[in-house]
Amino acid sequence: MQSAALKKMPDCTPVDMGARHDLLFGRFAAIWQMDRVLVDQKGTAFVRLWVETTRRNIRNLTFRSNMKIEKVFSAADAARNKEFMIVLSPPAEGLPEVPYIEPVIPDAKPQSGDAGLEKHIYRFYFPLSFPLSPAEPSRQKRTMGFVDNEYFYIRGYRDAVMLARIFEHLGHGKDSRILDFGCGAGRIIFPLMELGYANCSGCDIDGDNIAWLQAKPGMADRFHVSGLQPPLPFPDASFDCIYAGSVFTHLDEATQFAFLEDLNRVLAPGGIMAVSVSSWGVLAWIDKTPAFIVHDVENKGINYDSQDLDLTDYGISGEYYRSTFHDHGYIRKTWGRYFDILHIYPYSFGYQDLVILKKKP
Ligand SMILES: C[S@@+](CC[C@H](N)C(=O)[O-])C[C@H]1O[C@@H](n2cnc3c(N)ncnc32)[C@H](O)[C@@H]1O
């Protein structure tokens, strides 16, 4: 995902912090992350939420949860990071099936008119237990950019519930046929199946990850190796919902368009697709964002010049696997040829943005 970016760069001048701060200030509000969850035997949960922001003075900050908020400790308070430890206990009516916590910033503007959708997007759903055997380090590294067993699961779980709630809100429930395009090591699809979504399939160009997923009990038919270029190995109209977590963040422009067309083919009428993209949140987060990338994203709406070498050991070179950055205006203009664009939510998939698309009638 994000930290996999920018492995092999041409010589370039990084945007200095001050200039980047000025450039992004208007767009870069506050990016929240949840990376630690501990639940004791009584069901008391300790979660760590932190916010990265260029606005140092977020005031009147409170949290909302379907658990009882016992205490909020404000921990590290660095230039761009503010960290909170929050202690939550089960409410009188017992533990919720899926607990959540969300920051409430009174002066924050809603992102869209669809409050029902937005409420799920900026909410951190968290698991009450963890699987005994997470994906091993090399699989985490090449699909997430780093190794962290707990975060791999917490983020996967949170993304899974968020996507499921988005699909549900848009009319597709637990019996939907769901495709995880670029499923990697199953970070999102496994929590989704645990939550009762029985018709999930995944595909990826990484044959080693697909073989590992297929070898799990009952999983042989659910996972498929797909090609570097379309067509995908599915008949027309096979899926009601598709998501792609940090996949279009790695494609060049022509490949991106080719897959948008083919994903449209495999999506059934009325189908929904959720795709994450690296945009201004990721550009702000990368330590030495090269100036030419920012320039291209501002002026052309896209840059995919840099190679990502995370998959070279698995037969996919940096010539194919790119670090790709998008501007929202470009997405609306070009992706809008393939799908209706319902909304683009900034900073809602880690540092990435989430584009919600619907098959054109
Ligand atoms: C950053 S990883 C994210 C993996 C997973 N979606 C997740 O969120 O954990 C990107 C994944 O996209 C896959 N990928 C890249 N291009 C693809 C393509 N054209 N078709 C299918 N998968 C692709 C890669 O192999 C890799 O597993």
The CATH superfamily title of the domain at 2-15 and 132-359: Vaccinia Virus protein VP39
- Which class of the domain at 2-15 and 132-359 in CATH terms? Alpha Beta
Distance between the termini: 32 Å
Number of strands: 16
Order of strands in the sheet with most strands: 10-9-8-11-12-16-15
Largest sheet: 7 strands, mixed
Rg, rounded, reads 20 Å
Low-pLDDT residue intervals, each spanning 5 or more residues: 2-11
Question: Which small-molecule species are bound to the chains here?
Answer: S-adenosylmethionine
Shape: globular
Average pLDDT score: 88
- The percent of residues in helical segments reads 25-40%
What proportion of the residues form beta strands (DSSP E)?
25-35%
Tally of DSSP helical segments: 10
Which class best fits the helix and strand makeup?
alpha/beta
Q: Give, in order, the helices and strands.
A: HEEEEEEHEHHEHEHEEHEHHEEHEE
Architecture (CATH level 2) name of the domain at 2-15 and 132-359: 3-Layer(aba) Sandwich
Enter the CATH topology name of the domain at 2-15 and 132-359.
Answer: Rossmann fold
